[in-house]
Amino acid sequence: VLWRRTRPRGVVTTEALAQLTQLPVAGSLPDMGAVQVAEGQAQVTVGQTVLNPVDFTETTRLHRALTRNLHGALVLTSTVGDEGTTLMATLLALKRAAGGKRTLLVDLNLKNAAITEAFGLKPCAWELAPVKGKTTGRTGAKAFAMADVIARKAGAYELDVLPMPSDKTTLDLLTTSGGAAALFDGLSSAYEHIIVDTTPLMAHNRQNADPVLLAAAANRTALVVLMRRTPAGHIMQAATQLSASGAHIAGLVANNRYNPSPRTVLMHLARTLGYVAPAMASWLRAKVIRSGLE
Predict the structure, then answer these.
(1) Is the per-residue pLDDT at 239 higher than 80?
(2) HEC-encoded secondary structure of the chain
(3) 12, 76, 168, 221: which has the fewest Cβ within 10 Å?
(4) Which residues are registered as beta bridge partners of 255?
(5) Positive/negative CA dihedral, 45, 199, 203, 201
(6) How far is C-alpha 193 from the chain's CA centre?
(7) Largest CA distance in the chain
(8) Which residues have a Cβ under 8 Å from the Cβ of 57 and sit 6 or more positions away?
(9) Are 94 and 43 in contact (CB under 8 A)?
(10) Contact, 194 vs 72, CB < 8 A?
């Protein structure tokens, strides 16, 4: 079986990822295919069946590892773009809301506004402004007042969504000392959990909310890694940046979108064989199931 046409640029196993970064791996995200958001709920279609990835075992494990005993902000970031931070943030927020927790999903990924668009919203001016004489308990920075721009119950399970900011004033305030912490502290008074999607660490961050500052201000941070694709050197650089900023790294998320397991490869081969050699396909499928491969 031809495993891959090209040599992998990044790490392939979670063990190698943990050894490279000396950080815990919170869990793995399987190849879910094209995940869509319809009526505030995540959906993925397999054949004729529509599934809810929020209920997948892998999502549940990641949710438990990253949000257990959390009160406050969890920032999802990555090294480069298209590694799965938006998907992971959306699934975690929906999962948390499904558990009855007051949850807010925040779109601070200014490179694509994917969360904002997925929930049928538009970027808007947050109009953040320091509250005169009021400071946050955690940092002593000036607390922020926010215009009523949160989309209430935009997602399933009564999930609230804060669309991407469009005003320069907000972005400037988020880059000031204590700015992101003031935002998170303010939101924490109304929400148990704040799940934040951010711009990739190695993106050009002009006119963006710096993900390093956001990670340092959050209660927890998770780094999403696209297995087999993200270069090891980039992963190390990102982990070093986050650690140096003082961010509390809850764990790494291994996105296996382009990193199929042996079981997945062999089962795909069995499906392909089924068109030309049904008996051989059945034999291979049975062998894979009995093998215990994951």
Answers:
(1) yes
(2) CCCCCCCCCECCCHHHHHHHHCCCEEEEECCCCCEEEECCEEEEEECCEEECHHHCHHHHHHHHHHHCCCCEEEEEEECCCCCCHHHHHHHHHHHHHHCCCCEEEEEECCCCCHHHHHCCCCCECCCCEEEEEEECCCCCCEEEECCCCCEEEEEHHHEEEECCECCHHHHHHHCCCCHHHHHHHHHHCCCCEEEEEECCCCCCCCCCCCHHHHHHHCCEEEEEEECCCCEHHHHHHHHHHHHHHCCCEEEEEEECCCCCCHHHHHHHHHHHHCCCCHHHHHHHHHHHHHHCCC
(3) 168
(4) 29, 226
(5) negative
(6) 14
(7) 77
(8) none
(9) no
(10) yes
Q: How many residues does the chain have?
A: 294
Amino acid at 123: P
- Tens of pLDDT along 84-117? 999 999 999 999 999 999 999 999 999 888 999 9
* pLDDT band for position 281 (cuts 50, 70, 90): confident
